[in-house]
Amino acid sequence: MSIARRLVPGRTHSASRRTARRCFFLTPSADVNQVVLYALGLAVNRHGVDLHAFVAESTHHHTCATDDAPEARLSDFFETFHSLTARALNAHYGRGENFWCPGSYNNVEVFDKATLEEQLLYLWTNPVKDGLVERPEDWPGVKFLPEDFGRTVTVARPESAFFGGQRPTDWEPTHPDALAEFRRRRREVARRAGGAAHRRDRGRRPPRPGARPPKEPAPRPDRRDRRKLPTSVTFEITPPPGYDHMSLAEVRAYFRQLLDARVAQILAERRAQGLTRVLGADAVRNQNPRESAGDTFPTFGRNPRIACRDQTRRIALLAELVNWRVSYRVARAAWRGGERDVAFPHGAYGLPRHHGAHVAPAATGPPTLE
Fold it and tell me: Does 26 reside within a domain?
């Protein structure tokens, strides 16, 4: 089995996931941005997660959120967001198979304010660090920056998007290149089918005089609209926890100052390396979504689950996580042995959510950022 993830209600997480084969499936456009925004807002509304920051680059996304529901819902949040974007954008590009790379989801638990600030700055400056734009504001994709704290976003359901269910018979991809290829293939199929029908009918006798004409197909009733998703969603970008002593304007100004300083630092480092040019927003929009950003060979690097800048505390937190995993494995072994009264450690969510397993109460109060 894979290593169990711990989801404690009230804890802040920084998460990311990349597209399959590192393709540019999230290349910014009006259609892609609206699908991403709608799926993100629907996931926030359904599962009660506090969204603090988000950026969708062409090959991956970064998200910072607090799992503030009474029960941990972060996994449900990402399940909704990832599944809706995958179905809609696969249909948009006229493709199938995986949209997201299996196993690429990564999240870390954030334990202190210094680490939270570092995670937010990394998220916001990712397009700058990657040499795509000079400022985070220039990124043409979906993004939420410090000025978006406290902002309420309303986005309409994309009318042309296909989010699942029974696909209409007149469905076509909405991406221009995919649409042209789809129609070319359809013409080729029709041409071959017409040729086969012509060869089949050449030897048939003509109809007898006075024979009944073939029946016309009965008119089909208008197709019902079976969509159950709301016509629009409204959600809020909430300030991160730990800054309740500051007003909303002060929180925005504080993080804007940190962000400007980090952007200046990144640009200075790039200039020192001789990197003085960026790709630019227009070139980003013109990327071919079916092309790849490069090699997909794994780096075999560390996949952290804990984010804490204080080394002493980080070591203690890692030891605590190891003990939690041991307790989880012991409880799972007892569960598989038929012991249904066993209590899983606080933070377990798979078996308790789907099979009604018991969860031990939290040893301390709700998580806080120190």
Answer: yes
